[in-house]
Write a structure and sequence with these properties.
It is globular and about 40 Å long. The chain is about 0% helix and about 50% strand. Strands 1, 2, 3, 4, 5, 6, 7, 8 and 9 form a nine-stranded mixed sheet that branches. The chain contains no helices and nine strands.
């Protein structure tokens, strides 16, 4: 398991994006109706935050297999599949700039399909506001897995679902 931890300054979203140029030709996807955290397309997974702009705490875990348990101590948890063109993915801000302190991530199974589980907490604390202090935190778990439709594991926050 590889674990990366850091602080990211974001503008409404951040993403994990394949290093292959084909992933850079697409627009960011929107979450499917009923979802509010994750949106995925080939080569990318976007995570939508509650705040308009500011810092957040982020942990990314790259696993060899599916985790045994879901960490239910978070407010919102969603999953989506990520199809990659390469074995390298980068954690980026919403403006698609690399997040300081996060190296390019080597995906454990190389090119292929992965599952991404996003954990979120604090999205209600500064909804749609610009913040200077960390109020939101996220954990992403990424592991090799066959494609599966997006899944809501739990929604506990008032703003768990995108209002579009």
């Amino acid at each position: 398991m590889m674990v990366y931890t850091g602080r990211a300054n974001v503008d409404r979203m951040f993403c994990v994006k394949d290093a292959d140029d084909r992933a850079w030709e697409e627009l960011p996807p929107l979450p499917e109706p009923g979802f509010g955290l994750l949106a995925a397309d080939t080569g990318m997974v976007y995570v939508y935050t509650g705040m308009s702009m500011g810092p957040l705490d982020l942990q990314v875990e790259v696993l060899g297999d599916a985790p045994d348990l879901v960490d239910s101590g978070w407010e919102d948890i969603e999953e989506a599949s990520l199809q990659t063109y390469s074995d390298i993915a980068t954690v980026l801000t919403g403006a698609e700039e690399p997040v300081d302190g996060f190296p390019d991530t080597v995906l454990s199974a190389g090119t292929g399909t992965y599952r991404v589980r996003d954990y979120a907490a604090g999205r209600d604390l500064a909804w749609d506001l610009v913040v200077d202090e960390v109020v939101e935190r996220y954990k992403l778990q990424i592991w090799p897995a066959p494609y599966a439709p997006p899944r809501i594991v739990q929604h506990r926050s008032a703003h768990a679902v995108m209002g579009y």
